Predict the structure.
Amino acid sequence: MAAYILRRLLLMIPTLLGILLLNFAIVQFAPGGPVERVLAQLQGQDVGATARVAGSSAGETSAADPGGDNRYRGSQGLPPDLVADLERQFGFDRPAHERFLIMLADYARLDFGESFYQDRTVLQLIGDKLPVSVSLGLWTTLLVYLISIPLGIKKAVRDGTPFDFWTSTLVIIGNAVPSFLFAVLLVVLFAGGSFLDWFPLQGLVSENWADLSWPARIVDYFWHITLPVLAMVIGGFASLTMLTKNSFLEEINKQYVTTARAKGLSEHRVLYGHVFRNAMLVVIAGFPAAFVGILFTGSLLIEIIFSLDGLGLLGYEAVINRDYPVIFGTLFIYTLVGLLLNLIGDLAYVAIDPRIDFEAREG
Protein backbone atom coordinates (compact mmCIF):
# COMPACT_ATOMS: atom_id res chain seq x y z
CA MET A 1 0.00 0.00 0.00
CA ALA A 2 2.91 2.37 0.69
CA ALA A 3 4.18 1.92 -2.87
CA TYR A 4 0.68 2.61 -4.24
CA ILE A 5 0.38 5.81 -2.18
CA LEU A 6 3.82 6.96 -3.37
CA ARG A 7 2.88 6.34 -7.03
CA ARG A 8 -0.34 8.28 -6.61
CA LEU A 9 1.49 11.20 -5.03
CA LEU A 10 4.04 11.24 -7.86
CA LEU A 11 1.25 11.15 -10.47
CA MET A 12 -0.19 14.31 -8.94
CA ILE A 13 2.77 16.30 -10.30
CA PRO A 14 2.09 15.79 -14.05
CA THR A 15 -1.66 16.11 -13.37
CA LEU A 16 -1.17 19.52 -11.75
CA LEU A 17 1.18 20.60 -14.54
CA GLY A 18 -1.29 19.55 -17.22
CA ILE A 19 -4.22 21.35 -15.60
CA LEU A 20 -2.22 24.54 -15.06
CA LEU A 21 -0.84 24.45 -18.62
CA LEU A 22 -4.27 23.94 -20.18
CA ASN A 23 -5.87 26.76 -18.19
CA PHE A 24 -2.90 29.06 -18.74
CA ALA A 25 -3.17 28.51 -22.50
CA ILE A 26 -6.93 29.18 -22.44
CA VAL A 27 -6.41 32.44 -20.54
CA GLN A 28 -3.96 33.67 -23.20
CA PHE A 29 -6.76 33.61 -25.78
CA ALA A 30 -9.49 35.00 -23.51
CA PRO A 31 -10.49 38.61 -24.23
CA GLY A 32 -9.67 41.27 -21.69
CA GLY A 33 -6.97 41.28 -19.05
CA PRO A 34 -5.60 43.31 -16.15
CA VAL A 35 -3.83 45.78 -18.45
CA GLU A 36 -7.02 46.45 -20.41
CA ARG A 37 -8.95 46.76 -17.16
CA VAL A 38 -6.66 49.52 -15.88
CA LEU A 39 -6.67 51.26 -19.26
CA ALA A 40 -10.46 51.22 -19.28
CA GLN A 41 -10.53 52.73 -15.80
CA LEU A 42 -8.13 55.46 -16.88
CA GLN A 43 -10.42 56.23 -19.81
CA GLY A 44 -13.46 56.34 -17.50
CA GLN A 45 -15.09 53.34 -19.17
CA ASP A 46 -17.20 50.62 -17.59
CA VAL A 47 -15.05 47.57 -16.75
CA GLY A 48 -17.83 45.26 -15.64
CA ALA A 49 -18.24 41.79 -17.11
CA THR A 50 -21.27 42.76 -19.21
CA ALA A 51 -19.46 45.78 -20.59
CA ARG A 52 -16.57 43.61 -21.73
CA VAL A 53 -18.92 41.20 -23.47
CA ALA A 54 -21.00 43.93 -25.08
CA GLY A 55 -17.92 45.82 -26.18
CA SER A 56 -16.00 42.89 -27.62
CA SER A 57 -16.96 43.64 -31.22
CA ALA A 58 -16.43 47.36 -30.79
CA GLY A 59 -13.02 46.66 -29.30
CA GLU A 60 -11.81 45.16 -32.56
CA THR A 61 -12.33 48.53 -34.24
CA SER A 62 -10.84 50.62 -31.45
CA ALA A 63 -7.70 48.49 -31.43
CA ALA A 64 -6.78 49.87 -34.82
CA ASP A 65 -7.16 53.49 -33.76
CA PRO A 66 -4.01 55.64 -33.83
CA GLY A 67 -2.22 56.37 -30.58
CA GLY A 68 -1.47 54.12 -27.67
CA ASP A 69 -0.74 50.41 -28.06
CA ASN A 70 -2.95 48.64 -30.60
CA ARG A 71 -2.72 45.37 -28.66
CA TYR A 72 -5.09 46.74 -26.02
CA ARG A 73 -8.59 48.13 -26.28
CA GLY A 74 -8.87 51.48 -24.55
CA SER A 75 -5.20 52.40 -25.07
CA GLN A 76 -5.86 54.99 -27.77
CA GLY A 77 -4.76 58.46 -26.76
CA LEU A 78 -2.56 57.19 -23.91
CA PRO A 79 1.24 57.39 -23.90
CA PRO A 80 2.94 54.15 -25.00
CA ASP A 81 5.27 54.43 -21.99
CA LEU A 82 2.27 54.16 -19.66
CA VAL A 83 1.13 50.97 -21.36
CA ALA A 84 4.66 49.56 -21.11
CA ASP A 85 4.78 50.40 -17.40
CA LEU A 86 1.50 48.60 -16.86
CA GLU A 87 2.82 45.55 -18.70
CA ARG A 88 5.87 45.46 -16.44
CA GLN A 89 3.72 45.92 -13.36
CA PHE A 90 1.53 42.92 -14.23
CA GLY A 91 4.40 40.84 -15.63
CA PHE A 92 3.21 40.94 -19.25
CA ASP A 93 6.51 42.30 -20.56
CA ARG A 94 7.71 38.68 -20.84
CA PRO A 95 6.54 36.04 -23.35
CA ALA A 96 3.83 33.61 -22.24
CA HIS A 97 6.07 30.55 -21.90
CA GLU A 98 8.50 32.46 -19.66
CA ARG A 99 5.67 33.67 -17.44
CA PHE A 100 4.39 30.10 -17.12
CA LEU A 101 7.81 28.77 -16.10
CA ILE A 102 8.22 31.56 -13.54
CA MET A 103 4.80 30.72 -12.11
CA LEU A 104 5.74 27.04 -11.78
CA ALA A 105 9.00 27.95 -10.04
CA ASP A 106 7.09 30.14 -7.58
CA TYR A 107 4.51 27.43 -6.92
CA ALA A 108 7.28 24.93 -6.21
CA ARG A 109 8.29 27.26 -3.34
CA LEU A 110 4.60 27.61 -2.32
CA ASP A 111 4.71 31.26 -3.39
CA PHE A 112 1.36 31.94 -5.06
CA GLY A 113 1.90 35.63 -5.60
CA GLU A 114 -0.15 38.68 -4.73
CA SER A 115 -3.52 39.81 -6.03
CA PHE A 116 -3.37 42.44 -8.75
CA TYR A 117 -6.03 44.59 -7.11
CA GLN A 118 -6.33 43.83 -3.39
CA ASP A 119 -2.70 44.31 -2.26
CA ARG A 120 -2.76 40.98 -0.43
CA THR A 121 -1.20 37.61 -1.12
CA VAL A 122 -3.28 34.77 -2.54
CA LEU A 123 -2.74 32.72 0.62
CA GLN A 124 -3.96 35.61 2.78
CA LEU A 125 -7.10 35.96 0.66
CA ILE A 126 -7.79 32.21 0.83
CA GLY A 127 -7.17 32.24 4.58
CA ASP A 128 -9.71 35.05 5.03
CA LYS A 129 -12.39 33.29 2.95
CA LEU A 130 -11.69 29.75 4.16
CA PRO A 131 -13.78 29.85 7.40
CA VAL A 132 -16.96 30.57 5.44
CA SER A 133 -16.43 27.85 2.84
CA VAL A 134 -15.22 25.28 5.38
CA SER A 135 -18.26 25.98 7.55
CA LEU A 136 -20.65 25.54 4.63
CA GLY A 137 -18.81 22.58 3.12
CA LEU A 138 -18.15 20.67 6.33
CA TRP A 139 -21.60 20.96 7.88
CA THR A 140 -23.40 20.45 4.56
CA THR A 141 -21.41 17.32 3.70
CA LEU A 142 -21.83 15.94 7.23
CA LEU A 143 -25.60 16.50 7.29
CA VAL A 144 -26.09 15.24 3.73
CA TYR A 145 -24.38 11.95 4.55
CA LEU A 146 -26.08 11.61 7.94
CA ILE A 147 -29.48 12.07 6.28
CA SER A 148 -28.97 10.37 2.92
CA ILE A 149 -27.32 7.11 3.97
CA PRO A 150 -29.88 6.05 6.64
CA LEU A 151 -32.74 7.26 4.42
CA GLY A 152 -31.39 5.42 1.38
CA ILE A 153 -30.97 2.20 3.40
CA LYS A 154 -34.49 2.51 4.78
CA LYS A 155 -35.91 3.07 1.30
CA ALA A 156 -34.07 0.01 -0.01
CA VAL A 157 -35.32 -2.20 2.82
CA ARG A 158 -38.89 -0.92 2.44
CA ASP A 159 -38.85 -0.69 -1.35
CA GLY A 160 -42.35 -0.35 -2.81
CA THR A 161 -44.03 0.57 0.48
CA PRO A 162 -45.87 3.86 1.17
CA PHE A 163 -42.77 5.06 3.06
CA ASP A 164 -40.70 4.60 -0.09
CA PHE A 165 -43.32 6.39 -2.20
CA TRP A 166 -43.64 9.48 -0.01
CA THR A 167 -39.92 9.86 0.62
CA SER A 168 -39.32 9.50 -3.12
CA THR A 169 -41.63 12.48 -3.62
CA LEU A 170 -39.43 14.54 -1.30
CA VAL A 171 -36.32 13.31 -3.08
CA ILE A 172 -37.74 14.28 -6.48
CA ILE A 173 -38.55 17.77 -5.21
CA GLY A 174 -35.08 18.14 -3.69
CA ASN A 175 -33.48 16.97 -6.93
CA ALA A 176 -35.59 19.18 -9.19
CA VAL A 177 -35.30 22.49 -7.36
CA PRO A 178 -31.83 24.14 -7.18
CA SER A 179 -30.44 24.92 -3.76
CA PHE A 180 -30.40 28.66 -4.40
CA LEU A 181 -34.19 28.66 -4.92
CA PHE A 182 -34.57 26.93 -1.57
CA ALA A 183 -32.30 29.63 -0.17
CA VAL A 184 -34.59 32.36 -1.52
CA LEU A 185 -37.61 30.57 -0.03
CA LEU A 186 -35.89 30.31 3.35
CA VAL A 187 -35.05 34.00 3.25
CA VAL A 188 -38.66 34.88 2.49
CA LEU A 189 -40.00 32.63 5.25
CA PHE A 190 -37.45 32.98 8.05
CA ALA A 191 -35.08 35.89 7.44
CA GLY A 192 -37.34 38.91 7.31
CA GLY A 193 -38.50 38.49 3.74
CA SER A 194 -42.26 38.48 4.18
CA PHE A 195 -43.05 36.39 7.24
CA LEU A 196 -40.67 35.66 10.13
CA ASP A 197 -37.43 37.39 11.03
CA TRP A 198 -35.63 34.67 12.98
CA PHE A 199 -32.25 34.44 11.25
CA PRO A 200 -29.62 36.96 10.08
CA LEU A 201 -28.71 37.58 6.47
CA GLN A 202 -25.11 38.73 6.65
CA GLY A 203 -21.81 37.29 7.75
CA LEU A 204 -20.69 34.13 9.48
CA VAL A 205 -20.93 35.68 12.96
CA SER A 206 -22.29 38.86 14.51
CA GLU A 207 -20.23 42.04 14.74
CA ASN A 208 -19.96 41.73 18.54
CA TRP A 209 -18.91 38.07 18.34
CA ALA A 210 -15.52 38.73 19.98
CA ASP A 211 -17.24 40.23 23.03
CA LEU A 212 -19.49 37.20 23.60
CA SER A 213 -18.83 34.28 25.93
CA TRP A 214 -17.82 30.98 24.32
CA PRO A 215 -21.27 29.37 24.67
CA ALA A 216 -22.82 32.51 23.18
CA ARG A 217 -20.26 32.47 20.34
CA ILE A 218 -21.19 28.90 19.45
CA VAL A 219 -24.89 29.75 19.45
CA ASP A 220 -24.25 32.86 17.35
CA TYR A 221 -22.18 30.86 14.82
CA PHE A 222 -24.86 28.22 14.29
CA TRP A 223 -27.53 30.94 14.21
CA HIS A 224 -25.81 32.47 11.19
CA ILE A 225 -25.10 29.28 9.22
CA THR A 226 -28.43 27.51 9.81
CA LEU A 227 -30.24 28.82 6.72
CA PRO A 228 -27.37 28.57 4.18
CA VAL A 229 -26.46 25.06 5.32
CA LEU A 230 -30.12 24.01 5.29
CA ALA A 231 -30.50 25.33 1.73
CA MET A 232 -27.47 23.38 0.55
CA VAL A 233 -28.54 20.20 2.36
CA ILE A 234 -32.03 20.28 0.85
CA GLY A 235 -30.54 20.72 -2.60
CA GLY A 236 -27.85 18.08 -2.15
CA PHE A 237 -29.29 15.09 -0.29
CA ALA A 238 -31.49 13.76 -3.11
CA SER A 239 -28.86 12.25 -5.41
CA LEU A 240 -26.94 10.62 -2.57
CA THR A 241 -30.14 9.14 -1.14
CA MET A 242 -31.04 7.49 -4.44
CA LEU A 243 -27.46 6.32 -4.96
CA THR A 244 -27.49 4.67 -1.54
CA LYS A 245 -30.88 3.07 -2.16
CA ASN A 246 -29.93 1.68 -5.56
CA SER A 247 -26.61 0.37 -4.25
CA PHE A 248 -28.31 -1.47 -1.40
CA LEU A 249 -31.06 -2.82 -3.65
CA GLU A 250 -28.45 -4.24 -6.01
CA GLU A 251 -26.62 -5.97 -3.16
CA ILE A 252 -29.78 -7.20 -1.40
CA ASN A 253 -30.82 -9.15 -4.51
CA LYS A 254 -27.51 -11.01 -4.81
CA GLN A 255 -27.02 -14.67 -4.00
CA TYR A 256 -24.78 -14.20 -0.97
CA VAL A 257 -27.56 -12.33 0.84
CA THR A 258 -29.98 -15.20 0.22
CA THR A 259 -27.35 -17.61 1.51
CA ALA A 260 -26.74 -15.55 4.64
CA ARG A 261 -30.46 -15.44 5.40
CA ALA A 262 -30.72 -19.21 4.83
CA LYS A 263 -28.03 -19.71 7.46
CA GLY A 264 -30.30 -18.06 10.01
CA LEU A 265 -28.54 -14.69 10.32
CA SER A 266 -30.70 -11.85 11.55
CA GLU A 267 -31.82 -9.18 9.09
CA HIS A 268 -29.74 -6.59 10.93
CA ARG A 269 -26.64 -8.79 10.70
CA VAL A 270 -27.23 -9.45 7.00
CA LEU A 271 -27.83 -5.79 6.24
CA TYR A 272 -24.99 -4.21 8.20
CA GLY A 273 -22.57 -7.11 8.40
CA HIS A 274 -22.56 -8.07 4.72
CA VAL A 275 -24.58 -5.73 2.48
CA PHE A 276 -23.37 -2.46 4.01
CA ARG A 277 -19.70 -3.06 3.28
CA ASN A 278 -20.29 -3.79 -0.41
CA ALA A 279 -22.99 -1.19 -1.04
CA MET A 280 -21.08 1.67 0.59
CA LEU A 281 -18.19 1.41 -1.87
CA VAL A 282 -20.18 3.27 -4.54
CA VAL A 283 -21.26 5.92 -2.04
CA ILE A 284 -17.70 6.54 -0.87
CA ALA A 285 -16.53 6.89 -4.47
CA GLY A 286 -18.48 10.13 -4.81
CA PHE A 287 -17.37 11.68 -1.52
CA PRO A 288 -14.22 13.53 -2.71
CA ALA A 289 -15.99 15.14 -5.67
CA ALA A 290 -19.00 16.06 -3.53
CA PHE A 291 -16.89 17.66 -0.81
CA VAL A 292 -14.67 19.59 -3.21
CA GLY A 293 -17.72 20.79 -5.15
CA ILE A 294 -19.47 22.01 -2.02
CA LEU A 295 -16.33 23.53 -0.54
CA PHE A 296 -15.02 25.46 -3.54
CA THR A 297 -17.75 26.03 -6.11
CA GLY A 298 -21.15 24.80 -5.02
CA SER A 299 -21.80 27.60 -2.56
CA LEU A 300 -21.33 30.63 -4.83
CA LEU A 301 -25.01 31.57 -5.13
CA ILE A 302 -25.60 30.68 -1.48
CA GLU A 303 -22.77 33.03 -0.49
CA ILE A 304 -24.33 35.82 -2.57
CA ILE A 305 -27.84 35.32 -1.20
CA PHE A 306 -26.72 35.21 2.43
CA SER A 307 -23.93 37.81 2.07
CA LEU A 308 -21.16 35.36 2.94
CA ASP A 309 -17.67 36.13 1.67
CA GLY A 310 -16.25 32.69 0.86
CA LEU A 311 -14.02 30.93 -1.66
CA GLY A 312 -16.77 30.65 -4.27
CA LEU A 313 -17.19 34.41 -4.37
CA LEU A 314 -13.41 34.90 -4.36
CA GLY A 315 -12.97 32.71 -7.44
CA TYR A 316 -15.87 34.33 -9.27
CA GLU A 317 -14.57 37.87 -8.67
CA ALA A 318 -11.05 36.81 -9.67
CA VAL A 319 -12.30 35.52 -13.03
CA ILE A 320 -14.44 38.59 -13.67
CA ASN A 321 -11.58 40.97 -12.79
CA ARG A 322 -8.91 38.87 -14.56
CA ASP A 323 -6.95 38.63 -11.31
CA TYR A 324 -4.57 35.98 -12.65
CA PRO A 325 -2.54 35.29 -9.47
CA VAL A 326 -5.76 34.52 -7.60
CA ILE A 327 -7.16 32.45 -10.49
CA PHE A 328 -4.11 30.22 -10.90
CA GLY A 329 -3.20 30.12 -7.22
CA THR A 330 -6.65 28.95 -6.19
CA LEU A 331 -6.79 26.56 -9.16
CA PHE A 332 -3.53 24.94 -8.04
CA ILE A 333 -4.65 24.64 -4.42
CA TYR A 334 -8.15 23.39 -5.26
CA THR A 335 -6.78 20.79 -7.69
CA LEU A 336 -4.21 19.58 -5.17
CA VAL A 337 -6.86 19.26 -2.47
CA GLY A 338 -9.12 17.36 -4.88
CA LEU A 339 -6.36 14.92 -5.83
CA LEU A 340 -5.50 14.31 -2.18
CA LEU A 341 -9.16 13.69 -1.35
CA ASN A 342 -9.39 11.19 -4.20
CA LEU A 343 -6.45 9.33 -2.69
CA ILE A 344 -8.13 9.42 0.72
CA GLY A 345 -11.28 8.01 -0.94
CA ASP A 346 -9.27 5.06 -2.28
CA LEU A 347 -7.81 4.43 1.17
CA ALA A 348 -11.34 4.51 2.58
CA TYR A 349 -12.23 1.74 0.11
CA VAL A 350 -9.58 -0.46 1.70
CA ALA A 351 -10.72 0.46 5.21
CA ILE A 352 -14.30 -0.64 4.46
CA ASP A 353 -13.40 -3.69 2.37
CA PRO A 354 -9.88 -5.03 3.04
CA ARG A 355 -10.28 -7.39 0.08
CA ILE A 356 -9.58 -4.45 -2.23
CA ASP A 357 -5.87 -4.25 -3.05
CA PHE A 358 -5.02 -1.40 -5.42
CA GLU A 359 -1.34 -2.29 -5.40
CA ALA A 360 -2.00 -5.84 -6.56
CA ARG A 361 -4.39 -4.62 -9.28
CA GLU A 362 -1.78 -2.24 -10.65
CA GLY A 363 0.86 -4.95 -10.60
